[in-house]
Amino acid sequence: MGHFEGKTAIVTGGAMGLGGATVERFAAEGANVVIADVNTEAATTLAKQLGGTTIHLPLDVRDPKAWAEVVAETEKRFGTVDILVNNAGVVDTGPFEEWTAERIQRLLDVNLLGVFHGIQAVLPGMKRAGGGSIVNIGSAGALEGFPQMSGYGASKWAVRGFSKIVALELGQYGIRVNSIHPGQFQTPMTSQVTFSTDHVALNRLGQPDEVADVVLFLAGDASRFITGADVSVDGGQTAGNAAYQGVPE
Ligand SMILES: NC(=O)c1ccc[n+]([C@@H]2O[C@H](COP(=O)([O-])OP(=O)(O)OC[C@H]3O[C@@H](n4cnc5c(N)ncnc54)[C@H](O)[C@@H]3O)[C@@H](O)[C@H]2O)c1
C-alpha cells in the first residue's frame, strides 16, 4: 500500500518537468492526483499514461474562477484536497536596464499570485477537514541574488516570504505551508540553458525526482512538525561561496 493511499493532491504545472515528476511520485504512492495545467495536451497524455486516479483538470493559475472550478471538481471526485503543490511557474531573464513593468508583472501574476489564488481556493476545504499541506516551489534564486533575474528573483523571493507568513496564519487550522527552492534542473523550462556546475557542491545537475522526493516528504506525515520552512534542493549551490578556495591570512 502506498504512503498516500486515500489522499488527494493538486499539482499545478504538473504536466511536465519538476511538476510532472511530482505527479508520478504521488501516483506511485497511491494518491489521487490532479494535474492542474494550462498545457492540456501534455497533461492529458501524462494522466493517461499513469491511469488509475490521476486526472487532468485545465487551470491557468492566474484565474481565481478556474481555481474554484478545479477545487469543486476535485472535491466532487475525490473528497477533500489534502495537498496542494504550487509548482507552475514561468521564467524570464535579461539585463536590469531592459526590464519592463509588463515583464515583471507577468512573472508576479503566475509565480506569486498563482500561489495566492491556489491557497485561497483550497483553504475552506482544508479548514473543514482540520488540516492540509501546501508546498510552494520557489527557486535557488529566492535564496541568493542572481544577475539578470531581477523579475524572476523578485517573484520567487516573494513566494518564499509569502509561504512563511501564510504558515504563521494557517497553523491554527492544522495547515502547514513550506517552500522548496530547486537549483539547476534540466526541464522544458531550462531546455535552452547551458548550466555550469562549478559552484554546486555535489558538482552535478539535479534530477526532477530529487525535487519530487522532497515535495512528498513535506506533503506527508513524516514532516508533521515542519511548517514555514524553506528547503533548498540544489546540491549545495547556495550553501556558500564555493568559488572561494583560499585560506584566510
Ligand atoms: N528547472 C529548474 O532548473 C528550476 C529551478 C528553480 C526553480 N524552478 C521552478 O520549478 C517550477 C517548475 O519548473 P519546471 O522547470 O518544471 O518548468 P517547466 O516549464 O518545465 O514546466 C512548467 C509547467 O507549468 C505549466 N504552467 C506554466 N504557466 C502556467 C499557468 N499560468 N497555469 C498553469 N500551469 C502553468 C506549464 O504548462 C508546464 O507544464 C517552476 O515554478 C520554476 O520556476 C525550476
Automatic annotation (TrEMBL):
Pfam family, one: adh_short_C2
Keywords: Oxidoreductase
Lineage: Bacteria, Bacillati, Actinomycetota, Actinomycetes, Pseudonocardiales
Descriptive protein name: Glucose 1-dehydrogenase
NCBIfam families (alphabetical): PRK07231.1 (NF005559)
InterPro entries listed in its UniProt record: NAD(P)-bd_dom_sf (IPR036291), Sc_DH/Rdtase_CS (IPR020904), SDR_fam (IPR002347)
Family: Belongs to the short-chain dehydrogenases/reductases (SDR) family.
Superkingdom of source: Bacteria
